[in-house]
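Good morning N.,

You mentioned wanting to compare the apo and holo forms, so I went ahead and generated the holo version with 3-phosphoglyceric acid. This is what I fed in:
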Amino acid sequence: MSGTLVLVRHGQSDWNLKNLFTGWRDPDLTELGVEEAKAGGKALAEYGIKFDIAFTSSLIRAQRTCQFVLDAVGQSSLETIRDQALNERDYGDLSGLNKDDARAKWGEEQVHIWRRSYDVPPPGGESLRDTGARVWPYYLTDILPRVLSGQKVLIAAHGNSLRSLVMVLDKLTKEQILKLNLATGVPMVYKLNADSTVASKEVLGDMSAAH
Ligand SMILES: O=C(O)[C@H](O)COP(=O)(O)O
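and this is what came out, ligand included:
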């Protein structure tokens, strides 16, 4: 058995609350989002983990979530690497649009395909596969070697950048990933084998609360 990888999706953002496609836009957490991030941190504190390093994206909602988690586990000053490789999927021309307005305009099914499919990009934006094409190499070069050397690593990132990682870790098919939505602030604790496959996965919270 090697190290531990913890994935946590940022708490509710202002644009989650307003029901707007967000992508690379940079809204802050709402009060609820702050509470969700703190709750995720509390669950990790109760789990008893101490991290060696943290990774987050270049976006404020993930960075603040990361800091709330680190505060909760008593590691406020832990080294934290920020990289846009972990950013949310780029929503392209949909960024800033209301999700219900988009459903009214393009239809429920089309919008669901843009949001959850593996390889259909929203207009001018990234599909999940495109997102993975930048998340996976970064994971392989910058994150995985640390886990394999026995470190405990936190990644605080986004619904779709983390879905692209979970797809590989959990060996999900294109059909299975369509149904996966990650809850905000719910940590997923992976223990990896020396060959980088998953030895165990624990979800510290209610993933069915995803919205
Ligand atoms: O970028 C966004 O709008 C959200 O963070 C995630 O959106 P989704 O639920 O459509 O994947």
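The mean pLDDT is 96.

Happy to go through it together on a call whenever suits you.

Best,
F.
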